[in-house]
Amino acid sequence: MAPNVISQRVRRLHFRFATFILFKLFLLFAIEVSRNGQFQWRVTALGHFYNGINEGQEKQASDAYCWVIRALFGYNASAHLAEETHEASVVVAKGMWMSTLSAWLLFIIPFVTIIFFCIEDFDGIINASYANNWAEYLIQMVGPKGAVAILGILWVDPMCATASCFVSAQRVTFAISRDGVLPFSKYLRQLNTN
């Protein structure tokens, strides 16, 4: 939340740092995997499925729905931020589809592809003693120290998503308080000089 409150410059640096981390993480995976020669064949990567909770087609359909939702980061925030621009009816639509497209291009396509093609021991991941199987996958790929580094890097990503949510919430709070709907609207609709 601090980058949203301090200044626009700090927020800009925060998001640039997050973008740098995203590309660094992608390169870290690609370099480590290519060095160790751990890529799997297409049949192994895309032909092995596991349904550990045995809830049938309904569960698989809900999981597929959740994967689609996961790819829509920034969708809501870009729409809210674009509402106050010139020609908002055009800018909002562009912001919505561009945020979804960029999420797919920057996350779903490269990372999910790398994950599928780099699994070494599928049963080891499923039977791992960790609360999250992602840690076992990372240990297989980059070793314990690399796994800790990547999990640390991934800790920054939710902070950036939270910052986007705060920006969106601030914009919505201002718009509603401007109309006098919220309690203390007089104070919430005030803007600073920045």
Automatic annotation (TrEMBL):
<feature type="transmembrane region" description="Helical">
    <location>
        <begin position="101"/>
        <end position="119"/>
    </location>
</feature>
<keyword id="KW-1133">Transmembrane helix</keyword>
<protein>
    <submittedName>
        <fullName>Uncharacterized protein</fullName>
    </submittedName>
</protein>
<keyword id="KW-0472">Membrane</keyword>
<dbReference type="InterPro" id="IPR002293">
    <property type="entry name" value="AA/rel_permease1"/>
</dbReference>
<dbReference type="Pfam" id="PF13520">
    <property type="entry name" value="AA_permease_2"/>
</dbReference>
<feature type="transmembrane region" description="Helical">
    <location>
        <begin position="13"/>
        <end position="31"/>
    </location>
</feature>
<keyword id="KW-0812">Transmembrane</keyword>
<dbReference type="GO" id="GO:0022857">
    <property type="term" value="F:transmembrane transporter activity"/>
</dbReference>
<keyword id="KW-0813">Transport</keyword>
<dbReference type="GO" id="GO:0016020">
    <property type="term" value="C:membrane"/>
</dbReference>
